[in-house]
Structure formats: structure tokens, C-alpha cells
Design goal:
It is a single chain. The protein is mainly alpha-helical. It has a domain of about 90 residues. It is about 50% helix and about 10% strand. Strands 1-2-3 form a three-stranded antiparallel sheet, covered by helices on one side. A hairpin with a 7-residue loop joins β1 and β2. α1 runs antiparallel to α2 and α2 packs antiparallel against α3. The longest helix has about 45 residues. The mean pLDDT is about 75.
């Protein structure tokens, strides 16, 4: 399999998200949570829960689709901040894994307590190298070995 190429600030698929700007947009928007409300024969609207404040009206020709769009908009007010928080938490965990990877990698390469062996020469070394390959592929490169 061809190794994925990841540009700085982008995902492997090439999409990007500026977390700081996304968080600023969330903080600048009307406070949530929001809800979708659709009165009979009227376009759906998005408002603060309990109707405290009007946020937007969704207009167009297909009422069913507009209702789904309004529901999406209403949920985005809560979903995006939660997704940003989960993303930052995952990034923190990944940073910790990358630090641990560097430590383990250096410990294996610079170990004076156990001589280094080529792959296939020592069961203990083979087990450690197999673990490092799995860590590298699954966590650091975002792929499973063999994909």
C-alpha cells in the first residue's frame, strides 16, 4: 500500500480545519443550545431552546429538505463545540503517544542492557520490533499494517 501523505495542518485525505477559527466562530454565535421549529405552512426556523431568541430562517422550495437543513443547523451549535473538544483531547493523546514512541524507539536503539539483534535472531527483540511496527502504522501513520 502506498504511504499516505499528510501535509502540515491537514488530514491524510487532505481536508483541513483551523480549530482556533472554528472555536472563535462558535464563541461568536448566539449561545446554545438551539432547536429547529417548524410551524404549519411556514419555513422552518432555528432558535434558542425555549424560543428565547430567533437565530435563522431556512427558506427554499422543498419543505422536507429544509426541515432537515434546519435540524442540522440547530444541532451544529452543540455538535461543533463538542467535536472540537473531542479533537483537542484526541490530539493531546496522540502527542503523548508520539512522545512515548520516541522514548521507546530511543531505548531500543540505544539499549546497553540487551544487545541489539537483527529481526529473526531473538524472540524478545522480534516481539518488541513487532509492537513498534504496529504502533507506528496504527497510531502515527493512521493506517493498519498491510493496508
Amino acid at each position: 500500500m502506498k504511504e499516505p501523505i499528510q501535509e502540515p495542518g491537514h488530514t491524510v485525505s487532505g481536508s483541513s480545519l483551523n480549530v482556533k477559527e472554528a472555536r472563535e466562530r462558535c464563541e461568536a454565535a448566539t449561545e446554545g443550545p438551539w432547536e429547529m421549529f417548524a410551524a404549519k405552512d411556514s419555513p422552518p426556523i432555528v432558535r434558542k431552546v425555549n424560543g428565547q431568541r430567533f437565530v435563522c430562517e431556512v427558506r427554499g422550495s422543498w419543505q422536507t429538505m429544509l426541515t432537515k437543513d434546519a435540524e442540522f443547523i440547530a444541532h451544529a451549535r452543540s455538535d461543533l463545540p463538542a467535536a472540537l473538544e473531542a479533537l483537542e483531547e484526541a490530539q493531546g493523546k496522540l502527542d503523548a503517544v508520539e512522545e512515548a514512541w520516541e522514548f521507546v524507539h530511543l531505548a531500543i536503539l540505544d539499549s546497553d542492557t540487551h544487545p541489539r539483534h537483527g529481526y529473526g535472531d531473538c524472540d524478545s527483540c522480534d516481539a518488541v520490533w513487532d509492537m513498534l511496527i504496529v504502533v507506528e502504522h496504527c497510531i502515527l501513520r493512521g493506517t493498519k499494517e498491510g493496508e
